[in-house]
């Protein structure tokens, strides 16, 4: 567009310059023509008066002899003394352009002729109207022609420019659309714009398109690399740096389910049975360390199998794909894992580490069906012993007939534990802060198989809840705890016993517990029942009935894992618990987290106003203990304070 403006300015300037030159040329020509006309008229007048007397010079004679009206505009006859004898005027107006030029060049001037012998003096002005008209017509014609010559190319070039601009736009748009729609990820991007239409626009555009193509290619590489990095991050677990569930699904669908080649092997699912317990009792940082250690064990064991793949499916589950590994060899894999988990369990003083479910696979098998079967195998493994594994053989997989066998086996194991009362009790003290603070020891339960092997506690309790057997387990724990307290003569200590929300909201359980406490009036005042905040929220009316009953019996209530839900303090004021136990997530890295410090201090202030004591759990370091003490809490619990020990 700037070039087109320059063209217009150039053409107008040229036209003005040409007009000025032409005007000067025509003015010079007009002056020359007038000069010749004046000379001719002077000669004619001189010849006319040569033989004339003064009396013979009359208007009629002059008109006949000199045609003065057309030749002269002014004709004055004077005698020797200069007196005017005769004056003939024929007024004429010059055209505008000629008059304008005449004003500046003064070409028409008075002329004089003298006959001394006859005493005749003539003064005249010629009539230049005809010359002036010719001058004006010629000049206007030249201006018009030069204007046409100057502006016709401008209008023509404007049309050409618009057409060229439209062609360029359409061609570039066509090339870009072709690149976008036909080849969104081409490796030959530098050739995408090199077509015939672009070539027709001129060689000057070729370097620009090549630079554009090179730029787009570099940007495309950047986008590819960024997309790959984002995909890797989206497909990677942060804690273990293993592929996550998305990567597992993609790998299975691509290399197993949809593979054109025959594929077979074994799929193992490993579930970290103690993650929830560690998070609650030792803190989330210890939980991450636990998961990382289990991941390292799995990677070390699977590293001996060619083509093996390890993924972390969720917080507690890992998946292992063992290509070309039959069931018999998968049993050795299960034994090796169990041995390594048991060794780690002993070093870390855990009740269990992880259980493993194994199933064979072959290509074409839907992933959902396979996961259902391996989850069933996992349930079977959990119901055996700590760190156990179970393989679901091909004979069990026909039509998935054994899909419910895991639940049935769990039901049998739980029934057997209840009937045989195979529960052992652990104790972990809460250390009071301050002289006036009161605390207690939390009783924790462990369950054993018929062979005396320790069952994974978290899995056991979760399956009991799932199979609606939690009430019977809670009754077993309470009965065992009361008998142990009486037998060991712990009448001076206070004990906390965990109760599931489903039991607290069950009318039959509440009636049973009230009768049980009334029988043990001396012990009831030494008991504190712990119920999770989330569980209490599920049925506030039933929660209030349970808490009121516990208070009538002389016992106390602790709301554990406080801060996970969205309960208001109006809820606690109505329920009137005796203690709240802050969730371990609030003590994790407490010395560096100012927000958690502020929140805990606020909770302590509000809780104390309504007469509720506040405990912190998951204390794992001296720094965390020190910060908690400065926040005016009433007690602390965690592995730094004391590890669970047998009663």
From TrEMBL:
Q: Membrane-spanning residues where? A: 134-156
Organism superkingdom: Bacteria
Against Gene3D superfamilies, the record matches this protein to: 3.30.70.270, EAL domain
**Record GO terms (molecular function):** cyclic-guanylate-specific phosphodiesterase activity
Fetch the Pfam families from UniProt.
Answer: EAL, GGDEF
EAL domain spans which residues? 407-647
Quote the protein name from its UniProt record: Diguanylate phosphodiesterase
What is the organism of origin for this protein? Pseudoalteromonas peptidolytica F12-50-A1
What lineage, starting at the top, does this entry show?
Answer: Bacteria, Pseudomonadati, Pseudomonadota, Gammaproteobacteria, Alteromonadales
């Amino acid at each position: 567009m700037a070039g087109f403006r320059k063209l217009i300015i150039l053409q107008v300037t040229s036209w003005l310059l040409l007009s000025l030159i032409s005007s000067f040329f025509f003015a010079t020509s007009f002056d020359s023509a007038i000069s010749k006309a004046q000379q001719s008229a002077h000669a004619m007048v001189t010849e006319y008066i040569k033989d004339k007397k003064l009396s013979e010079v009359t208007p009629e004679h002059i008109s006949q002899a000199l045609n003065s009206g057309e030749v002269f505009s002014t004709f004055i006859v004077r005698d020797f003394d200069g007196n005017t004898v005769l004056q003939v005027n024929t007024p004429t107006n010059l055209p505008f352009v000629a008059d304008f030029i005449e004003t500046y060049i003064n070409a028409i001037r008075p002329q004089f002729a003298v006959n001394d012998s006859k005493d005749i003096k003539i003064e005249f002005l010629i009539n230049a109207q005809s010359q002036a008209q010719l001058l004006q017509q010629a000049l206007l014609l030249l201006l018009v022609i030069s204007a046409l010559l100057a502006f016709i190319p401008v209008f023509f070039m404007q049309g050409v420019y618009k057409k060229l601009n439209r062609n360029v736009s359409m061609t570039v748009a066509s090339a870009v659309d072709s690149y976008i729609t036909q080849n969104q990820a081409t490796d030959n991007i530098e050739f995408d714009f090199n077509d015939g239409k672009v070539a027709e626009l001129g060689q000057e555009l070729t370097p620009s398109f090549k630079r554009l193509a090179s730029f787009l290619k570099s940007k495309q590489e950047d986008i590819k690399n960024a997309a790959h990095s984002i995909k890797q991050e989206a497909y990677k677990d942060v804690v273990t740096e293993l592929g996550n569930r998305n990567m597992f699904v993609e790998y299975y669908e691509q290399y197993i389910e949809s593979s054109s080649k025959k594929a077979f092997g074994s799929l193992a699912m490993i579930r970290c049975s103690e993650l929830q317990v560690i998070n609650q009792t030792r803190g989330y940082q210890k939980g991450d360390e636990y998961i990382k250690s289990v991941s390292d064990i799995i990677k070390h064991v699977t590293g001996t199998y060619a083509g093996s793949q390890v993924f972390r499916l969720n917080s507690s589950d890992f998946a292992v794909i063992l290509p070309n590994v039959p069931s018999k060899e998968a049993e050795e894999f299960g034994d090796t894992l169990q041995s390594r988990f048991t060794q780690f369990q002993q070093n870390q003083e855990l009740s269990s580490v992880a259980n493993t479910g194994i199933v064979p696979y072959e290509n074409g098998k839907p992933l959902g069906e396979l996961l259902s079967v391996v989850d069933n195998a996992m349930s079977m493994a959990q119901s055996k012993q700590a760190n156990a594994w179970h393989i679901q053989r091909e004979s069990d997989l026909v039509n998935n007939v054994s899909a419910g066998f895991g639940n049935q086996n769990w039901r049998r194991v739980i029934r057997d534990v209840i009937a045989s009362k195979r529960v052992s009790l652990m104790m972990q003290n809460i250390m009071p802060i301050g002289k006036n603070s009161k605390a207690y020891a939390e009783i924790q339960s462990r369950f054993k198989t018929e062979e005396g092997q320790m069952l994974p506690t978290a899995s056991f309790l979760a399956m009991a809840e799932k199979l609606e057997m939690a009430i019977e387990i809670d009754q077993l724990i309470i009965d065992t705890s009361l008998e142990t307290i009486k037998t060991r003569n712990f009448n001076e200590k206070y004990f906390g016993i965990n109760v599931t929300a489903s039991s607290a909201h069950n009318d039959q359980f509440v009636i049973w517990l009230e009768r049980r406490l009334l029988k043990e009036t001396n012990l009831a005042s030494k008991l504190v029942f712990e119920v999770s905040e989330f569980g209490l929220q599920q049925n506030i009316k039933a929660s209030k009935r349970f808490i009121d009953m516990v208070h009538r019996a002389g016992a106390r209530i602790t709301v554990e894992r406080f801060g996970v839900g969205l309960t208001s303090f109006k809820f606690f004021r109505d329920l009137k618990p005796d203690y709240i136990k802050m969730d371990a997530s609030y003590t994790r890295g407490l010395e560096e987290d100012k927000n958690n410090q502020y929140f805990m201090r606020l909770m302590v202030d509000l809780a104390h106003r309504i007469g509720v004591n506040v405990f912190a759990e998951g204390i794992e370091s001296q720094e965390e203990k020190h910060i908690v003490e400065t926040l005016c809490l009433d007690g602390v619990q965690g592995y730094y304070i004391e590890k669970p020990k047998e009663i």
